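Notes from hallway chat w/ T.B., transcribed later so I don't forget. T.B. wanted the structure written out for a chain they're using in a teaching module, and asked if we could keep both sequence and structure tokens in one place. Agreed to drop them here.
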Amino acid sequence: MMALAQSGAEEGSWLRAERQTSGRGRQGRAWDSPSGNLFASTLVRLRPDDPPPATLALVASLALYEAVSAFLPTDAHDELSLKWPNDLLLRLAKLSGILLERKDDAIVIGIGVNLASHPDSLDRVTISLSAYGPPPAPDIFLIELADRFADWVVSWRADGLDHIRTSWLKRAHAKGTALSVHDPSGERIDGSFDDITRDGALCLRLADGSVRVMHAGDVFLV
């Protein structure tokens, strides 16, 4: 998708792979890519008055939450939650991930969703939509996701970050949830979820009552 972006692809373009041979997650991690799951990327072209590009992670999370909800039984909707910075959880297990990359005015948002299966070799608990019965085919799921993402990008531009932030917090795990954050230097910081800033950074409340604002890191539920 980044190559297509550099060739002039328009905002809203999507690219889906049946299977990836060199997929990757955040910080260059390997990404398991069995067929039957969703591996897709889309493109946003930044405009001069757009909100900060990093907040597109919140936009993608909201779209993903709504798309997954469309394929879950109604009584399972309360088992979905968002976790900073880029995970959708189902029963507090990782269902999907989001990766943002930028070059010039092009932001590529990569999204992976465990539809038919999930890896067992990660450093956290994982789950797939197949836990609730036959999952949607990746191409069917992508139609739903693309529609929801397009709507949230419009809202991101028209309604501002306060609306995006409030919408994200309504779908996140509860304030006070115990977290362990590994920052980019490798330091482990324990605390509890307090809030996110207007530009999408994590507010982690520490044991001494102070709040640390974090812009990057791996977050684990404790």
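Follow-up for T.B.: The chain has a mean pLDDT of 92. Might be a good example for the class.
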